[in-house]
Amino acid sequence: MWNVALFNMLRGDLPLVQQQAVTLREKAAASGEPAFIMSATHIEGVWNEFMGFVVPSIALLERARELHDPAKHGENSAMFGF
């Protein structure tokens, strides 16, 4: 879902990305998996940035950074390059 949301963001379908970000956040929270929560928080932060909502974007991206654990999220880093 993260990849699809990122794809839609890059092609400019921001209303769809907003819906996908909400779904990702809900599914990530339900899973309790920190890597999923980090990814959902990241995509929501980037969406806010694209929309020009700077303050929420900074807060969400900082939260995603705080949730990132390089020792546990190596697969994410290898797959997405960050």
Question: Which keywords apply here?
Answer:
82 residues, mainly alpha, 5 helices
Plain-language structure description:
The chain is mainly α. Helices cover 80% and strands 0% of the residues. The protein is built from five helices and no strands. Helix 1 (2-10) packs antiparallel against helix 2 and helix 2 runs antiparallel to helix 3. The two termini are 17 Å apart. The model has no long low-confidence stretch (mean pLDDT 88).
Order of helices and strands: HHHHH
Structural class: mainly alpha
Please bin the fraction of helical residues: over 70%
For the termini, the CA-CA separation is 17 Å
Number of helix segments?
5
List segments where confidence is low: pLDDT < 50 over at least 5 consecutive residues.
none
What is the total domain count? 1
Number of strands: 0
What is this entry, summarized?
This protein is mostly helical and 82 residues long. It is 80% helix and 0% strand. The chain is built from 5 helices and no strands.
Write the layout of secondary structure elements.
Blueprint lengths: L1 H9 L3 H18 L2 H18 L2 H14 L6 H7 L2
Helix pairs in contact: 1-2, 1-3, 2-3, 3-4
